Amino acid sequence: MKILEHIAQEIAVKTTEILGYPISITDKEGYIIGSTDRTRLGIFHQPSLEVLKNNGLVTCYAQEEPKILPGVSVPLMFSNKPIGVLGIVGDPAEVEKYVQLVKNQVEMMCQEAFRKEVLELESKMVEVFVQQIIHFENDANTDHILQYAKTLGYDLDISRACLLIDVDIDMSSLNSSSNVSDRFSLPYFQREALDFLSLIFRETKDDIVSFLNVERFIIIKAFRSNEAHLAFLDKLKQKLEKLNKFLESKYTFSASIAVGDLKLGIRGIAESYRNASKAMQVGKRGNPLPKIYLYDDWDITLQLLPKELAPDLRRKLTSMIQPLIDQDNFDVLVSTFLGYCKHNMNVSETSRNLFIHRNTIIYRLERINELTSLNSGNFEHCMLLYTAIRQYEETTHA
To answer: pTM of the full predicted structure?
Structure first.
């Protein structure tokens, strides 16, 4: 069994430190794969085959053969099958009383190592599955994804919404963590964060939790009804607070959450993922608290609107405001206009919040009217100009 080969030497060394007696571990063929005395590694140990054959304890006494040392040996079992032999070197009468205790400990370690290996394999399968489903484009891949889902036990006939968790990582803080050495701190954080996300977000077997990179995790959340979806969103702030409390206490990190819309099927999950990505991108710019960005939120939709325009319309809108763009004080005029829109096209309210004299705001708006041939007092014109400016900013800052 490969698992025993991977941990045999570590077991031998650590057990000897505690027990005080040399330890040896052989594989099913009788070759030593773990030993307190490293020079014995790889040596064929004939009595081990006798132990495996009898499936019981065998005592060895001092012999002239240097490869065989006095002590007791017992078979190591996994799933009721022998996988190797444990030997404790020493006076058989003295060491026999320890052999069953050490045997149980080694077998438990093999079980734990196997469990971790299975979990790691499942995690890798989930990673591959998530990558396939969020980047789904071609219906030809449907059967392959469905087979993956069946293997992992996921029902894809349930409506789902994608959640993206972005963690603001301070690498200096991570590397100074006292939990693990610097060399392994990043994978350790990733595993620990993934476990915590599963704890607070994975409520059914159809909820999928994985990571996309070191700083971004994904939850593909299953909902049996629209009411369940709404109830989950109501608790999202509380869940984010728990997550941030965990991250801040252990790593001084913080997280943001973006939620895509509720969709059905493979293509729907891919769309929800893309929409969650858009919500995260525009939401982080505003940086509201709590850091929860819902694709279905009206504020997010307003910010997304300029990004979703067709290329031809983008060019047309840019051309319409080109005289404004060409002005040296373009940034000043635009910031005044956007503030005017934010404060409900109310000049007095805009003046108070921007700390600019009312007459200055009126002058700037009139200048914008001249340059664009639009009327800033008209709602439709304001909406058109707002969209034109925002899409221009999106293009220039992309």
So the answer is: 0.70
